[in-house]
Every structure is written in structure tokens, then in C-alpha cells.
Amino acid sequence: MATIADQIDAPESYSTETPAEAAPKAPRAVLNVGGAAVGRRKQAIARVRLVPGSGTLSVNKREFAEYFPNKLHQQLITDPFKVLDLVGAYDVVAKVTGGGPSGQAGALRLAIARALNEIDRENNRAILKKAGFLTRDARVIERKKAGLKKARKASQFSKR
């Protein structure tokens, strides 16, 4: 019969580290099918066409990095490709109108995610849905109310 000391010194112990023998993931197969979708965020509207290619992104006939110089916006837009392991698999041609840079980036991300979902629903939908890329952000600017200066800002109240 094993004693407590033998169990403590046992070679099979528990740790928080992941096992080293985890198999590397195989690269995703790219379908030779294109897709198109529309994404909206605040006042911005993005129309996107995905074509199998080398991974170039063009927005309003300009280079991606030139149109979105902010690295945070660039990362936000390319997130759907990273989640699906499809970086460099599709060329993106986008037309974006309205809103500001942040709204346009959000609209473009939604449009890309919807187009990827349209291309391969069985494999892509669950991953994109879990990451929250297929949900439209419905937050918009609140309307101005009568008698107030802005949506909620009122003139200072004086008791006397």
C-alpha cells in the first residue's frame, strides 16, 4: 500500500502549464470563392468585396495603411482574418462612406466578418459569432431634446 509520502513524490504531478506535446494547428484551406457584404457602425457604411488572393487591402481606392494610419484601427479591421487563420488569403476591396475613422473601422470589420461568414458558413460562423464579429454595434448618438442645450446638457439650475 502506498503511503502519502510516496504519492507526493510520484512522477505524475499536476501543473498549470500546458503539455508540450500539443499538436500544431494545420493551416486553414482557402476556398476559391469570393464574397461581398455591407457593414454599418454609427453613421459609417462599408461595402466590401473579398476575392481569393495575396491579402492586399484597399479602401476607397487607397492603400489600407494610408487610409487607416492608426494601428488600433488596422488591428480591429484585420481581426476576423486572424481569428480564422486566413491572414493573406483574401484581397479586400472596400468602399467606405460617412462617419469618422472609428466608425468606418468598425463598419469595415463587420462587413469583412459578414463576407467571410457568407463564403464558408459551416466552418466560419461559430468562430466569428463567438468572437462577437457578427454582431452590429447599435450604439448611435442620442438625439437632442427640446429645452436642452444638447442631448442631456441643461442650463444651470438656480434656486433663487
CATH hierarchy: architecture of the domain at 35-131: 2-Layer Sandwich
Share of residues in strands: 15-25%
User: Which sequence of strands runs across the widest sheet?
Assistant: 1-2-5-3-4
How many beta-strand segments? 5
Termini Cα gap: 89 Å
Low-confidence stretches: none
Instruction: Please give the CATH class of the domain at 35-131.
Output: Alpha Beta
- Helix percentage range: 25-40%
Number of helices: 5
Order of helices and strands: HEEEEHHEHH
The chain-level mean pLDDT equals: 87
* CATH topology group of the domain at 35-131: Ribosomal Protein S5, domain 2
Q: Strand pairing plus helix content: what structural class?
A: alpha+beta
Shape: extended
Keywords:
160 residues, alpha+beta, Ribosomal Protein S5, domain 2, five-stranded mixed sheet, 5 helices, 5 strands, extended, Small ribosomal subunit protein uS9, Ribosomal_Su5_D2-typ_SF, RNA binding, structural constituent of ribosome
Please provide a written account of the structure.
The protein is extended and about 75 Å long. The chain has a domain at 35-131: Ribosomal Protein S5, domain 2, CATH 3.30.230.10. The relative contact order is 0.18. By secondary structure, it is α+β, with helices and mostly antiparallel strands. It has helices at 4-8, 64-67, 71-83, 101-119, 121-131, and strands spanning 35-41, 44-52, 57-59, 62-63, 90-97. A hairpin with a 2-residue loop joins strand 3 and strand 4. A 5-stranded mixed β-sheet has the order 1-2-5-3-4. Helix content is 32%, strand content 18%. It starts with a helix and ends in a 29-residue tail after the last helix. Helix 3 runs parallel beside helix 4 and helix 4 runs antiparallel to helix 5 (121-131). The model has no long low-confidence stretch (mean pLDDT 87).
